[in-house]
Write a structure and sequence with these properties.
By secondary structure, the chain is mainly beta. It is built from 10 helices and 42 strands. It has a 6-stranded antiparallel β-barrel. A hairpin with a 5-residue loop joins strand 25 and strand 26. 29% of the residues are buried.
Length: 710
């Protein structure tokens, strides 16, 4: 070392020095306290080992510089230059954190700036064989030592495992600066990123003088219990930590489906996660969420929940049902039509509740809550508002008792049309969904085997502006067998009722109505009948078959009947024995037909309808689900007289064609769509004796003009 002091123009100190390899602890003790004091103090407190391999020092202080340093101000940059190299250094960048060892680097200190850059890989030993490494290029920098306290920045590229980072952040020394919201033992993955430590160097530093900033990418990340017991797997996340808190976002897999994850932990507050997933049918079934019958297609879900709550979670869930299809009794939503649901999900000691449910799929809406058991089976439900149509006003309560689900519906108004549409379109051959197939492996199913339904509605609106008042319905169904079924209501002053009798395996439902026309209008099965007393019996055990009888009714403005009369009734002879028939309003004494359900088809056989003026027979089928019809039969004019020939033994068979036909009869056929059927007539059949009349049956493609209607 060499230098000189000159007082010619006031005090001036010039000095130069070179240093052989010397321990850093010795160098820092030899360091004059008035030169770059913040750097000297930090090194004294935090550097634990290492050697200065080479150093050169040059100073040139004038009187003003010396006066400034006496007042604890650093000299100008140009008055001081220190270049040095460090080998095998060990630095504890924060008290209480394991030191970073194996640090090599180069440094430069000027009057007001300090910079140190690493040239080697550093290693931090977190214990139990876990390490954190830093890449070459890390820096320690002071931009202006004249500021009090003095800002300093440490920047390093770090690489480690997630559990190592989590363990380090769980230490008391780092808790004031950053922490992970999940237990480190539940985390796996690789972290590569940038660590920045901002320091305010001074004589009495506190945690408030230190802040951490982390910008990193975590690959192959797994969190075993991110939301309750549900894990995030195979994720890649971008993580940012600063004074405002922790933020992380990226993609992985949850609930067996691709997931987008956002985690947020504001400083001093609890952490939360937002998960976006799209689950198709297969993914829902795999997770035990596929047991909701009638729901198909992808469902987008957004789940927001606090982290670190263990198995008892509380989450806000929003579902986007736009691309899903819904087919429920009385409700339908095709894919592509907007639909959404949201609710508060809470899991407590294995029990799951869905509270504050808001379901909105256009006309179908519901507000309420649901309770689920440990196996996700329904335990109870309470909906204060349910709508399957805009005018509905329903409340639904459900409670599970053993294997029975008791459902009580109370309504001011129910639109029955969606339910009727489902009833007539459904197929008895469709298998019921399996509850066991929808549960995850290892979970024993707890199926609901019995439904006890109790419905009361002041008003039930149907098709064609028909209204049924005072509806009361009770149903008890176990598996696929009905143990009890009854209903009652009124069309004006006329009653309609149904009651089930017989054993469940072969039960019979009897339906009675004092106004058959209103009942048929209500169900949209037929629009041209007035009055009539209806009696229908049906066997519903193992199928659907029975007999329909309607007495004393009028058919008004029936297009098919009008054409039958026009083309099938001979003109009166000179004696007037064939009376003129009014096809606009025709009275009938009786209608009777047997029917069977086969899939979506209703098979009709041995059908007969007669009055004093005309009679008809009918056989064929109706398919409401596919809007199809194919029926044929014989039209008998002047039935009261004409049918007498069919009563004569042998002669009646030959001339009359059967007990429900007559001497004169016209074969007809109705086919095509139920909404617009085509009527075909074979006038030649009218001149054939009854036993040969079927030879002149109506073909499938006989032209017809104008006879379309119900």
């Amino acid at each position: 070392m060499a230098g000189d002091v000159d007082w010619t123009n006031g005090p001036r100190l010039r000095f130069g020095a070179a240093l052989d390899p010397t321990p850093i602890s010795v160098v820092t003790r030899l360091w004059p306290s008035f030169i770059c004091a913040p750097v000297r103090n930090y090194l004294l407190d935090h550097v634990k080992a290492g050697a200065v391999e080479k150093a050169t020092l040059q100073i040139d202080f004038n009187a003003a510089d010396l006066d400034a340093m006496r007042d604890e101000h650093p000299p100008p940059d140009e008055s001081l230059l220190l270049d040095f190299t460090v080998a095998n250094g060990s630095v504890e960048f924060l008290s209480g954190v394991p030191p970073l060892t194996g640090v090599d680097g180069v440094g430069r200190i000027t009057g007001r700036t300090s910079t140190f850059t690493t040239t080697s890989v550093g290693m931090l030993d977190a214990g139990e064989g876990r390490t954190l490494t830093t890449a070459p290029g890390g820096t320690f920098h002071i931009a202006d030592a004249n500021q009090k306290p003095t800002p300093a920045v440490i920047v390093a590229k770090v690489s480690s495992t997630v559990d190592t980072i989590g363990d380090l952040l769980a230490r008391d020394a780092l808790k004031p600066y950053a922490n992970l919201p999940l237990a480190a033992s539940t985390l796996r993955g690789q972290v590569d990123g940038r660590l920045e430590i901002d320091l305010n160097l001074g004589p009495n530093m506190s945690p408030a003088d230190t802040s951490l900033k982390i910008n990193s990418v975590v690959t192959n990340f797994t969190a075993d219990n991110l939301l309750g017991k549900e894990a995030l797997e195979a994720a890649t996340l971008a993580i940012n930590v600063d004074a405002s808190g922790l933020k992380a976002s990226g993609q992985g897999r949850m609930f067996g489906a691709p997931a987008t994850v956002e985690m947020n932990q504001p400083s001093g507050k609890a952490a939360s996660a937002m998960v976006h997933i799209i689950m198709d049918d297969a993914a829902r079934a795999k997770q035990g969420l596929g047991g909701v019958p009638g729901v198909t297609g992808p469902i987008a879900a957004t789940i927001t929940a606090p982290l670190g709550t263990g198995e008892n979670i509380r989450a806000d869930v929003e579902l986007d049902l736009t691309h899903a299809g819904i087919e429920w009794p009385g409700a339908s939503k095709p894919p592509g039509r907007p639909g959404k649901a949201k609710f508060l999900l809470a899991v407590n000691n294995g029990l799951t509740s869905l509270d504050q449910i808001v379901f909105d799929a256009g006309a179908v809406q519901a507000h309420g809550q649901i309770e689920l058991g440990p196996d996700q089976s329904l335990q109870s439900a309470k909906f204060g508002q349910v709508k399957f149509s805009p005018g509905d006003d329903m409340k639904v309560d459900a409670l599970r008792v053993g294997e029975t689900l008791k459902v009580m519906v109370r309504a001011g108004t129910i639109d029955a049309r969606p339910f009727l549409k489902t009833l007539f379109a459904s197929s008895s051959d469709t298998p019921a969904p399996s509850a066991a197939a929808s549960l995850p492996p290892g979970v024993s199913p707890s199926p609901i085997k019995e439904i006890d339904l109790d419905v009361k509605s002041a008003l039930l609106s149907g098709y064609n502006k028909q209204v049924l008042t005072g509806l009361e319905l009770r149903m008890l169904k176990r598996d696929e067998l009905y143990k009890q079924l009854s209903f009652a209501g009124r069309f004006g002053r006329q009653t309609v009722s149904g009651n089930l009798t017989g054993p469940p395996a072969a039960s019979q439902l009897t339906i009675l109505s004092d106004d058959a026309g209103s009942l048929l209008l209500f169900t949209d099965l037929y629009k041209h009948m007035e009055r009539g007393r209806l009696s229908a019996t049906m066997q519903i055990g193992g199928g659907l078959s029975g007999v329909l009888t309607i007495d004393t009714f009028v058919l008004r403005d029936e297009p098919a009947l009008r054409r039958l009369v026009a083309e099938g009734v001979p003109p009166p002879d000179a004696t007037g024995r064939m009376p003129k028939i009014d096809a606009g309003a025709m009275a009938f004494n009786r209608l009777q037909v047997r029917y069977d359900r086969a899939g979506t088809r209703l098979l009709l056989r041995d059908g007969v309808m007669n009055g004093d003026a005309i009679g008809l027979t009918v056989d064929g089928w109706l398919d409401f689900a596919h809007d199809g019809v194919d029926m044929k039969g014989t039209f008998v004019p002047a039935y009261a007289v004409n049918n007498l020939f069919s009563k004569i033994p042998v002669v009646g068979l030959i001339l009359g064609g059967g007990s429900n036909e007559g001497l004169i009869g016209v074969n007809y056929r109705v086919e095509g769509k139920i909404s617009a059927p085509t009527l075909s007539i074979n006038p030649l059949s009218a001149i054939a004796p009854g036993i040969f009349r079927q030879i002149f049956g109506v073909g499938a493609h006989i032209p017809s003009t104008g006879a379309a209607g119900q």
